[in-house]
Amino acid sequence: MESSSGAETKEAACGVTEETKQDTAAAARTAPVLDEIRLVVLGWRWPGKSLTGNTILGREDFRLERAAEFCVTRQTEVKGRQVTVVDTPGWFSAQDTPPSYKQELVKGATLCPPGPHAFLLVIPVGMFTDIDRARIEEHVSLFGENVWRHTIVVFPWVEALRKITIERYIRREGQNLQWVVDKCKKRYFIINNCVFGEHPQVGRLMEGVERLVAEEGGHFVPQEIVEEKKVKDDNKNPERDVRELGARPKQNSGLSLSKAVEVEPVSSEYV
Ligand SMILES: Nc1nc2c(ncn2[C@@H]2O[C@H](COP(=O)(O)OP(=O)(O)OP(=O)(O)O)[C@@H](O)[C@H]2O)c(=O)[nH]1
Ligand SMILES: [Mg+2]
């Protein structure tokens, strides 16, 4: 919701627009509270991924070292939920990201098994270009097309908004940022990394994740885990053995072919 009134502007800077209030109320009504929330933080280099992780955890767990090359996982209890945050290496903005960084980035989704509830795509408030959009598309898509259904945009550096609301900022930045927000089904939150300790925005973010999980029917399952499960299930599936060995099941073995066919199909993206 956009407005230039002082009171609303102040609220917007804290992430409390009327829209967010209504969204939060709706989320509270519909989404069950999760005991455990698993998050993977993504973004280019230096936008505030690690600090955003710290704000969520309420502790200085992630080191703010420049150009982190490896994923780091931290866990603590936040607002009654066990929260796991995986911090990932940022991608390069002005040149190709080395393959080793990309590999490490994708590994991030496997470090909170059975898979993250949400990816937090950290985009600092500021200028957003067509190159930023292309880089985001390239790197987020490394997790597979399904990743977008589990991605929430998180905007730090909210002090740079000054007197405007986040909605107005998104509109003002134009189609590149709008494209990213739309790709994430308009799921976005602002987070003020300058405030430490009790943080109302963190609770709202948790509720946003719970709403996403309710709407998408579960958490994200990394491709590696889908494939592992497929291999395990294939090994358990006698029909496959029958097919591959070219044999017929014994008539009175107690395992008819029709029974074997009843085995659950593998590879639902969600478990
Ligand atoms: N003022 C302000 N500073 C921030 C904010 N978020 C992050 N910073 C600062 O920005 C710098 C980078 O933050 P990091 O969290 O280390 O960034 P990163 O994305 O993890 O960086 P890499 O791991 O190198 O990719 C640090 O000096 C932070 O203190 C914010 O919301 N406001
Ligand atoms: Mg970092």
From TrEMBL:
SUPFAM superfamilies: P-loop containing nucleoside triphosphate hydrolases. Residues 227-247 have a biased composition (Basic and acidic residues). InterPro entries: G_AIG1, GIMA/IAN/Toc, P-loop_NTPase. One of its GO terms (molecular function) is GTP binding. Signal peptide: none annotated. Residues 34-230 form the AIG1-type G domain. Pfam families: AIG1. Belongs to the TRAFAC class TrmE-Era-EngA-EngB-Septin-like GTPase superfamily. AIG1/Toc34/Toc159-like paraseptin GTPase family. IAN subfamily. This is AIG1-type G domain-containing protein. It comes from Knipowitschia caucasica (Caucasian dwarf goby). The lineage of its organism: Eukaryota, Metazoa, Chordata, Craniata, Vertebrata.
